[in-house]
């Protein structure tokens, strides 16, 4: 079978070296196996998405020589698909509306921390008459969903992982300000686009537990996952733009040769004392 991989950046800033590495891994995985490499623009966060960053993604990938196949997909044009998935979960009684604000959740002493942030304490779960006139998100009742789905597993390279989505608590599937969350949109799209192999950074490893649960509930296939190591800076810290990592555009402006950069990334030879993290 020829694999289908994808690079799925969120246009909330310019791409940096970590993105380039991730795109390259997904690209090479497909190219080495006569597969297909897709590009999906994850632009459903209205507060953070900018059109100029979308153009920047094209510019940077093409400069690096990473051409994608087939039609470009914009999540902002696929809201109907996410709404239909939400409706399916609603019919199964597995989601509930939630009017809590971040401040409400932060103020709750019973909210432990999960892999991403504070776990939602379940305040709105089981409300007899939720107020749908107030701005509300939709949350997955994870315990109920897990009871419905039973034990779930997924493969990361050749290692089996057991999904433990309850660590995230009742995740948001549709936000107050956006009709779908990352978890819902990514799961629906990977299936709709026929992605067979999800190649992405280890920072998203834990999220796979939630995606695996959504696949089970929505009757979608489970791709194989390949979470790659993250780039580390000279001090061993995670490379991220907010820490001042140079963008691909900066490197281009500095006159860096893209072919050399890409060969270096493949060989784990990185500029500025950066390295491939161990995990
Ligand atoms: N859009 C996500 C990000 O930029 C990546 C989604 C994914 O690869 O699953 O972090």
Describe this structure in words.
- With 279 residues, this protein is α/β, with parallel strands linked by helices.
- The protein folds into two domains: 4-77 and 229-276, HUPs (Rossmann fold); 79-174, Glutamyl-tRNA Synthetase, domain 3 (Alpha-Beta Complex), CATH 3.90.800.10.
- The chain contains nine helices and twelve strands.
- It has helices at residues 17-31, 51-64, 79-91, 102-107, 142-149, 182-192, 207-218, 248-253, 258-267; strands at 4-7, 36-41, 73-74, 95-98, 137-140, 153-156, 159-162, 172-174, 197-201, 224-228, 231-232, 275-276.
- The strands form five sheets. The protein has a three-stranded parallel beta sheet with strand order 1-2-3.
- Helix 6 (182-192) packs across helix 7 (207-218).
- The longest helix has 15 residues, at 17-31.
- The protein is globular, with a radius of gyration of 20 Å.
- Bound molecules: glutamic acid.
For this entry, what is the oligomeric state of its chains? single chain
- The class by helix and strand makeup works out as alpha/beta
Number of helices: 9
- N-end to C-end Cα span: 29 Å
What is the strand arrangement across the widest sheet? Answer: 1-2-3
> What is the name of the CATH superfamily of the largest domain?
HUPs
Spans of 5+ residues with little confidence (pLDDT < 50)? none
Shape: globular
Q: Count every beta strand, where a strand is a DSSP E run of 2 or more residues.
A: 12
* Biggest pleated sheet: 3 strands, parallel
- What is the average per-residue confidence, as pLDDT, rounded to a whole number? 93
User: SSE string, helix = H, strand = E?
Assistant: EHEHEHEHEHEEEHEHEEHHE
How large, in whole angstroms, is the Cα Rg? 20 Å
Cofactors and ligands present?
glutamic acid
CATH top level label of the largest domain: Alpha Beta
- Identify the CATH architecture of the largest domain: 3-Layer(aba) Sandwich
